[in-house]
Amino acid sequence: MHQCVIAAAGAPIFRPVDGRPLVAWLLRELSRYGIDEAIFLSGQLLPADRDAVVALNQYLPRPLTLTLAAGDLPEPGQPLDAEFLLSDGTTLFAAPLRLDDRRATRLVHPATAGAIGLTLHHHPVALPALPCDHTISPCNEADASRLLHRPALFLDRDGVLNHDHGHVGTRERFDWIDGARETIRLATQSGWHVFIVTNQSGVARGFYGEADVKDLLAWMRAECLALGGTIDDTRYCPFHPEAPLLSYRRISDWRKPAPGMINDLVGAWELDLARCLLIGDLETDMQAAAAAGIDGYRFTGGNLLRFVAPLLEGRKAVLF
User: Fold this and answer.
1) Together in a domain, 233 and 167
2) What is the C-alpha to C-alpha distance for residues 220 and 298, in angstroms, rounded to an integer?
3) Which of 5, 95, 275, 305 is the most exposed place for a label (fewest CB within 10 A)?
4) Same domain, yes or no: 301 and 225
5) 158 is known as an active-site residue
6) What is the pLDDT at residue 47?
7) Which comes out higher in pLDDT, residue 208 or 88?
8) Cα–Cα distance between 176 and 220 in angstroms, integer?
9) Residue 115: its pLDDT value, please?
């Protein structure tokens, strides 16, 4: 599920809340769940509102595809996915939505059985709930601040989330470490951001390409979503100072032990360093954490959930 249809009009969704439009808070949260396109039904939007839609990406940690439908429905050339999320622009419904007719249908919110005014000529589909109970109405500054200022768990990949078989670049060679997906679910449900920061010198060595890295990370994200956890964002470094491939031969401040990947995520997601921690399996991970100014913990094997759960629990009283 990658699309969100926003069926709302006028000022309420653009009301400033804690320094940004209300709908920007919604999109920021949706992006954690793999939503990468928002379709605004613009039949009742004012010209200034349409300009505001285009400007929303400046408030988001990573850009989304923002589409303005010409009227009250997505345009014929803008088909909906088989599954999509519906929002009124201020609330994320964390319950399934259903289509109540097979031809001209109205989307219904199951909590009230009330149609919210969107008619779609589309194949009927039952929309799944998001993996966690995140019904969000950030209508005041306290709610917005809560969404923005989550603590953050940074995870190395090879040796932490998957067994390090040496330059793992395909799903066929990827083996989850025991408790890895459960760790991500626990962190998500406990109110943490989850980020992956991984050196991928296999690209620089010609073992696989950047597209393979991105595909594998996207697959990991989908696997975790299916179990109720989010990988909110990822960074990887394909460079190596002695790379066989000249285009990747460089010293990069993204390659751990340098802190560039962490720093980039901290800036994009507006994180508080005191509320961040990193789990890695190598000394270079610990050095990167220290250079970024966050706590680092070295995982030496076994069940990742048993290692991480006490760390999250022990910081709860301080962070929340």
Assistant:
1) yes
2) 22
3) 95
4) yes
5) yes
6) 77
7) 208
8) 9
9) 37
In the predicted structure, residue 46 carries a pLDDT above the cut 70: yes
Percent of the chain whose pLDDT exceeds 70: 73
Asked whether residue 92 falls in the same domain as residue 134, the answer is yes
Distance CA 87, CA 61 (A): 20
* 97 and 174 housed in the same domain: no
Task: Tell me the C-alpha distance between 209 and 292, whole Å.
Answer: 28
The pLDDT value recorded for residue 105 is 35
**Catalytic residue (choose from 88, 156, 232, 281):** 156
Domain end position, chosen among 145, 162, 186: 145
Residues 6+ apart with CB under 8 A from 121: 73, 103, 104, 105
Indicate if 157 and 186 belong to the same structural domain: yes
Does 233 qualify as catalytic in the annotation?
no
Domain boundary among 84, 114, 145: 145
CATH code, domain with 227: 3.40.50.1000
CA 27 – CA 36 distance, rounded (Å):
9
Judged by average pLDDT, the poorest of 72-81, 257-266, 274-283 is: 72-81
Residues 139 and 193 in one domain: no
Clarify whether residues 308 and 172 are in a common domain: yes
Q: Which helix (H) or strand (E) holds 218?
A: helix 210-226
Q: What percent of the chain has a predicted confidence (pLDDT) above 90? A: 53
The pair of structure tokens assigned to 13 is 């969704």
pTM score, two decimals? 0.84
Considering its fold, how many domains does the chain have in total?
2
Examine the domain organization and report whether 287 and 271 are in the same domain. yes
Is 302 buried (19+), middle (13-18) or exposed (0-12) by CB count in 10 A? exposed
Catalytic site residue from 49, 158, 233, 281: 158
Residue 148 has pLDDT above 80, yes or no: no
What pLDDT is recorded for position 92? 54
Run of H or E including 40? strand 37-41
